[in-house]
Every structure is written in C-alpha cells, then in structure tokens.
Sequence to fold (167 residues):
Amino acid sequence: MNTRDLEQIVTELELSPVGSLWATLHLENSHITSITLDLSKPKTTASCQGQEMGFHLKRLLTGMGLEKFPVPFKLKGTPFQKRIWHLTAKIPPGETVSYSELARLAKCNSPRAVGQALGKNPLPIIIPCHRVIGKNGNLTGFSSGIAIKKMLLDYERIKRHESSHNE
Fold:
C-alpha cells in the first residue's frame, strides 16, 4: 500500500448544548475506512477539510441520509457484521433499539453476537451504533466509551425535539 494514499482528517464536533468531541477520519484512497471519536483534542489539528467533514457528520446526527454524505466510505467486515451495520444504519436519529431487538431484526438469536459485530464497527456516526442499547435501557458497549455514546444520544434527542417544535 502506498503511504501517499493514506490521510487523516481531524474535526471538532460542537454538539451544543451537550459539549464537544473530536473525530479523526482515517482515509485510504479517498475513502473513509475508520473514524475515531475522543473527548480530548488529538495532537493533529483540524483543517478546512476537517471543518467541512464535521459539518456533514453533525448532519448525520440530525437525520441527513448517507446518500448525501460527500465522501465515500469503505466497510471492511464479515457478511454478518455488514448485515448488522446495515440494519443499524436504518435507526433514525434520536431513537434507540436494543441489542435483542436488532438480533431479532437480523434473524439472529444472539444479542451478544450483535454486540460483537457493533464493537467492530469502524465508522461510528456513519453507522450509528451509539443508538443500540441494552434491553433494560442501559447504555452499554461503545468503542469510544459510554460518555461519548450518551453525548451523541443526548444531542440527537435535543435536535429531534427542536425540529418537532419547528414544524
């Protein structure tokens, strides 16, 4: 692999009023291959391209469809993982489903297998695995940590509430 074909874009996501987080998008041949989320600023600084990506990632959290996302992405995973990720991508912003419910939709008898597939999700926000919760409503399992999962869900719920009042 040619290292010139690898790139990182760093952006700050200001999720007012719940706080800010940082997203690092890892690209290979102009395709997003993974996203890392963090509460603290990475050593690499944000760029103009990063600001644009931040804008589009925030729009995904408020209901913009993936068909309007400006950068293609490449999903690497097993057929089962990709099936779970595809179903997860259909969960609307501000809503949640349980691991058990997602397993039922996938015609799989194992919520644990669903959780393991989501744990391998390389594209949080694009594949919104933060919208999958425990069957008792608990926030469990998120590669970027429960604090970021809660922040994303809170932001989506606030934006959903705001948009329902503006209609």
